[in-house]
Amino acid sequence: MITLTINGRKLEFTGPTRLTDYLESKGLTNRPIAVAVNGSVLRKDEFASTTLVDGDTLEIVRPVGGGT
């Protein structure tokens, strides 16, 4: 088992997890998002080559429109 912190919540996984697999499981692959792993913002072309391992911290944000 590994533990990841995703958007401030600790979650357990059976083992190292590809970032694209996690995003797909959450329905986020076709949405405009920004992702940071351990404080480093990733380019979209880096998602497929990123594997999340024990202790990693992941932040996922989506743009929100609005204003006056």
Can you walk me through this structure?
- The structure is a single chain.
- The protein is mainly beta.
- The chain has one domain (2-61): Ubiquitin-like (UB roll).
- The chain has one helix at residues 19-25; strands at residues 2-6, 9-13, 17-18, 34-37, 40-41, 51-52, 57-61.
- A 5-stranded mixed sheet has the order 2-1-7-4-5, with no helix packed on it.
- β1 (2-6) and β2 (9-13) form a beta hairpin.
- The longest helix has 7 residues, at 19-25.
- The mean pLDDT is 94.
Structure summary:
With 68 residues, this protein is mainly beta. The protein has one domain: Beta-grasp domain (Ubiquitin-like (UB roll), Roll). The protein contains one helix and seven strands.
